[in-house]
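@here heads up, posting the sequence + SMILES for the pyridoxal-5'-phosphate run so it's all in one place. Ping me if the SMILES looks off, I pulled it from an old spreadsheet.
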Amino acid sequence: MSHSDGTRAVHAGLPAPAVGEPFLPGPVFAAPYHLDPVTGPGENGYARTEHPTRRALETAIEALEGAPTLAFASGQAAITALLLAVLRTGDTVALPSDGYFTVRAFAEGTLRDLGVKTVLVPTAGPYPDFTGVRLVLLETPANPGLDVCDVRALSAAAHEAGALVAVDNTTATPLGQNPLALGADLVVASGTKALTGHSDVLLGYVSAHDPTLLGKVETWRKQTGAVPGAFDSWLAHRSIATLDLRLARQTANAAAVAGLLLSRSDVTGVRWPGLPSDPSYPIASAQMRRIPGIVSFDLGSAERAGRFLSAARLVFAATSFGGVHTTADRRAQWGDDTPPGFLRFSCGIEDAADLLADLTAALDASA
Ligand SMILES: *Cc1c(COP(=O)(O)O)cnc(C)c1O
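bot reply: prediction finished. Complex structure tokens:
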């Protein structure tokens, strides 16, 4: 039976009911486990390779992404594991020029030193011919600019040229879009953001149907060790139960916030892929099942952005996004190639009327 999102999120990765047992078993705190003195390891031998709490979380994410999944200690641990497991000296990787900045920094440092060439492509295109490219990493919607690309068309073009396609699904989450169903070979994501959504866990994951491909990533993880701990895995799994509810409120808040921002003459560059006037809208509305709660806009200067963030009571100045608390991040302070007054605004799950009132007062006070 196929269930809808709320039901899938609540039940993802839970074991079959067992009398006297909790719905979601608690974290197992173990590094080594007892071995059979004669036959050695059973299901669990050593936590870097096998961990029941981590396995339950992976089963939950698998239920949402639609393919076997490996959890990592952070999004960057997952992305770098994927890149290093797949790419070899002489290979070329295509990366988004407007995507998560640490991925570009890794390509321009470690990958370059290993003899891997990088081609940077803006998410909105135009895309080059992929001939000679080993791996195409797409990030859609791209963080922080919120451009969206056509995963189905780009996967077909990449496969035609013999390239693998990975999609960073951090911003959308698996309830927002399923890149594997659109033709991608791999999904990679940070679970630190909306997937877990409480700003208290670092997490990453890689999902793929192809056992050989996922096996390479698993071997990489086993040999380098970037696994999430038991408590973080459990917290993440516990948080996924409310993913549908949190996303629904965040999306509704983003629609209200984007509408307010568009109505103001002292705010420019408002981007939200759910706005019919947004350049991302045509592809986003065809490809995505819901639009994330992230809005971006420009307040003109670093000074005004600072005054706005100081005046707002319900908007925490913070990096990261997708949490239950509304936050905003002036990306230029991190070296992102964005204007000095550009904010990535992440809607939390507060009540829309309170957010709009706070936003209006802070915009007025900072003008
Ligand atoms: C945050 C983020 C990452 C990195 O994830 P961490 O969990 O911080 O390591 C990767 N990709 C995107 C799109 C992100 O937003």
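MO: The radius of gyration is 21 Å.
MO: One more: The CA atoms of residues 253 and 352 lie 5 Å apart.
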